[in-house]
Amino acid sequence: SASASSANPFLCVECENTILSFAVLSDDSDRLDTFLYNNGVLPRDKICPSCSSVMSLNINKHNFNCYNYITTVDKHKKKIKKQCKKSVSQFKNTWFENHNLSKQTICRFVVCWALLKPPRHDVLKHELELSDHAVVDWSNYLREVCVVVCSDESQVIGGPGKTVEIDEAKIGKRKYNRGRIIKGEWVFVGFERESKKCFLIPVATRGHAELLPIIKEHILPGTTVISDCWKTYNCLQFEGYTHLTVDHSYNFVDPETGAHTQHIERLWREVRGSVPRYGNRKQHFIGHLAEFMFKRKHSDYKTRVHNLFRAIGHLYNGENEHPNITREADTDSESDDY
């Protein structure tokens, strides 16, 4: 059987793009295609699913066609040659499959979404001439990519000699504002001071049964763990951790141990700022958190576009179905960033 270069599609090591530079790049169809090939978002080659030959690409029609002659046996057991003539869309199983928007518009949306901070809905709508639903749908598609990336890159932090701050909060809450009824979802976070690595996990409750398994899974034994005085954490000293506490009702720095959670307080402010104030439906919440984590990891403005397209190319590689991604139209436009 033949082999195609799509087996190793990521030819681009690292490229830099801004909104303006990508607008210029995407004005040239050939340059845009080259960018997408090099980042693995579009396949340049494909193996025929019928006869396993290398297919030819018709770039104008975005189709792969097979012109290979194959030998078959007719009903009289006579060998005959016939042309395969198999045709496959270049967009099949890619980021562009089953959508009416142009390739240029979709790519420009990805770039603007990656580099603009919320609220950006109206900017995306008017600059790219899209409907409200299109902005919401494509924003959610991109968050789904971030969810898969963050899940795949989940890592264990801490260890002997390392300090990890842990905390939990409801997004939208003003911490320690007593008596205020709030809505939102609990989120549990761990932040390693030395490396600035963190994990961010939505949880239904902040009870012992839910938080302790997460702590043991994500924080190595021997870690110095700093938390507030929430009773769930009282058992940590018996689970292989050195546990220090800070009573936020009185101070943010423990006068006896010097323990504080100021790093994690700063992180919470960043997370709250990344999640829309209105229309934050529960099923979209994880997506907003994943977007925050992805952009925090790829904080370099110019290379973030490259890394997002690489993630898209990895998930939508043109060869496989996408079991981890459900790309259904969202009927509630309030779910995006206002």
In short, what is this structure?
This protein has 338 residues and is α/β, with parallel strands linked by helices. The protein has 9 helices and 12 strands.
Defining traits:
338 residues; alpha/beta; Nucleotidyltransferase, domain 5; disordered N terminus; disordered C terminus
Portion of residues in beta strands equals 15-25%
The helix/strand class is alpha/beta
Most strands sheet: 5 strands, mixed
Shape: elongated
Strands of the widest sheet, in order across it, are 9-8-7-11-12
Q: Which fold name is given in CATH as the topology of the domain at 157-273? A: Nucleotidyltransferase, domain 5
Provide the succession of SSEs. Answer: HHEEEEEHHHEEEEHEEEHHH
Number of helical regions = 9
Return residue spans where pLDDT drops below 50 for at least 5 consecutive residues.
1-9, 172-184, 249-258, 322-336
Name of the CATH first level of the domain at 157-273 = Alpha Beta
Average pLDDT taken over every residue = 79
Distance between the termini: 52 Å
Helix content: 25-40%
Output the CATH homologous superfamily of the domain at 157-273.
Ribonuclease H-like superfamily/Ribonuclease H
- Integer-rounded radius of gyration: 25 Å
What do these coordinates show?
The chain has 338 residues and is an alpha/beta fold. Among the domains are: 43 residues, no CATH class; 117 residues, Ribonuclease H-like superfamily/Ribonuclease H (Nucleotidyltransferase, domain 5, 2-Layer Sandwich), CATH 3.30.420.10. Helix 3 crosses helix 5 and helix 5 packs across helix 8. The chain has 9 helices and 12 strands. Strand 3 and strand 4 form a beta hairpin. It starts with 18 loop residues before the first helix and ends in a 23-residue tail after the last helix. The longest helix is centred in the middle third of the chain and has 21 residues. This is Putative transposase-like protein HI_1328.1.
